[in-house]
Amino acid sequence: MSNIPETGRTRRVTIRLVVLQILVLSLLATLGGRLWYLQIRNAKEYTAKATGNHIREVVEPAVRGEILDASGRILAGNEARLVVSVSRTSLLQQKDGGKAVLGRLAGVLGMPAKDVQEKVRLCDAKTQQPCWNGSPYQPIPVTKEATTQQAMQIMERREDFPGVTAQPTAVRRYTGVEGANLAQVLGYLSPVTDDEVSKTADKKGLDRYLPADQIGRAGLESVYDRDLRGTAGITQLEVDNLGRVIGTAGTVAPQAGDNLVTSIDARVQKVVEDNLVQAMNDARNTFDKVTNRNYEADSGAAVVMDVHTGRIVAMASAPTYDPNLWVGGISGKDYQALTSKDSNFPLLNRAIQGQSAPGSTFKVISTTAAVQAGYSLDGHYDCPKSMTIGGREFKNFESENFGAISLEKALEVSCDTVFYGLAYDQWMKDGGIKPKKDPGDWFFKTAHQFGLGAKTGIDLPAEVPGRVPDRQWKQSFYDNNKDAWCAQAQKGGNSFSDQIARENCVDGYQMRAGDAVNFAIGQGDTLVTPVQMARIYSALANGGTFYRPTIAKAVISPSGQLVREIAPHEDAKFPGDQKLLSYIDQATAGVITSGTAAWKFAGAGWPQGKIELHAKTGTAEVEGKQTTSWLTTYSKDYAVVMTISQGGTGSGGSGDAVRRIYQALYGVDDKGNVDNGKALLPAPQTELPKFNPDGTAIIKPVAYPGTAAGTAAGASVGTLLAPVAAGAEEVQPLTFLDPAQPTGTPVPYAAADTALEPTRSTGRGRA
Length: 767
What we know:
alpha+beta, EC 3.4.16.4
């Protein structure tokens, strides 16, 4: 008889079936719970995601705002170009994937078929440029240089070119109005990168970058990008699971960017640029008796500043370049030409990024420092042909001996030894090589009070601070370079560099007598920028106010309404009293009439009795290079500063050019006659330009008493900007410090660091 139950199951089989049933029920319960979680608990979230899966965005770029000069002339605007674009969606609907359409298009445009096909392919990790890195549903531009005839052929044969459009599109254009270049001031645009798009995907409005966006990468285009860029339009397309467009889910129209009015006068800018180039060319034709060759004059900068506000009227940097090279994407060849060492780095704005020793232009600071330290304005100080300090001879320029002279005379004739003596005496009072616990350091303190060693805060990116080589800097510099100095010293060389390394290895942190006296005449390790010196001499002209330099005056809506005005900003006051200011004012006027600049001004017929100018010349020595020419000047309205690297003496290299700039400003001819009708800008322009209802600027003559200067009345400047609603919300003024550069920004400055800071020199300054 069998012991198997009637069911045919053993106890073991029954247990297994129960376990299996429990497992199945558990899986069913888990699946049910998950379905409940997805379909009920989080239904809204996943419904939204599912809906988003079949929505694609097509971006219509906004028209970028214009950058205008002080009278409303367009410096950076937009021009209509015929852009031929191709829709990939339409191409994929063709049997051959659109190959035939692209072939016909290439024939009409006169382009190789391969080039057209590459432009419309999508970029990925394996596909390099040329390719399209935007949305595959976005019309892809094939060319922005189509002719009217080509556009007509395409539009008249629509059946042969499905998905191909040819229509006018606004493209950035740097106008060169009045012949002004302004490349480094205006900056340039470039497309956003994939990283920038992905990092801002969750943001809204101007904080979100879209694949078709062009953003500012340098100059005003960068600092005021949010104002200028506008808001792109977005069309949402519904697509099926194969990516085919089946409808439209919504459209948001683009909103044009605001316009930026600057303090630049395009006519004055042209004059400044031309005279800077002329001065450099003249220097290259001048023989340097020290190096026995002509001056190289490899770079230079010039600034014209309104002394009453700190606003920049003109800013030139040389060498320069055509900013339109960036429009539509710069070629590799052009980028190499702009950034190679042989180019001398034209992307640099040497007015805010060019650093060099100021030479004797620094002596107005040293005069102030001496008075703060207790030296009398009424005293007389020895001006021998040379002084021996620390076992080394420090000479006066051309070894001239003026005897005992006043500080005023010392400024006029630029006597180095007077300032050597003052600085050495103060160094000794501070304890010499073994300084007191709390030394006065008046010369260094005063330089900081004048704003040196710090950025001015101008509304341009990548400004450099210059350098005040005080005790703190000496210690920091020593800590960073001690090992290198000692390693060089151990090699036992006899060059000047080797001698300096041996000295610095032992006690490079100490403030030596030579450091102190060199600093007093703007030499040694001192570095300044032209815009810093323009601000200093503007303060001397206006009664002692240091204004923050600015270029932008106001943001204007596309319809011509004021969005916000950018008011002048006071940063500091002159550290001395009005008596000292008047004293320096009188001394710098003497530089024009009988001092180191007299042969270029009074001797050349400048009408000092009608238009009083003030100046200080500077000839800075740089180890291994020819001298740097500096000329810092001011009138009751303007400060004009020019510097030329390896350009000769202060007055010899820059004197004629600076005088011609003043002649253009005030309408002075070569014989000293003043004609207000020929003056470009006899007084700074304070009012904003007026605008037509359509947002175009009304170019009128600038009204000055007794003048007829200006452009034809009533002229207006055309624009592509579409009117938008006025009355934008008031925005707080910007703080003009370096804006954070977007990821992927080209960094032309990094390769040019050596161009920003010349070789350190212990040489003396000259007039």
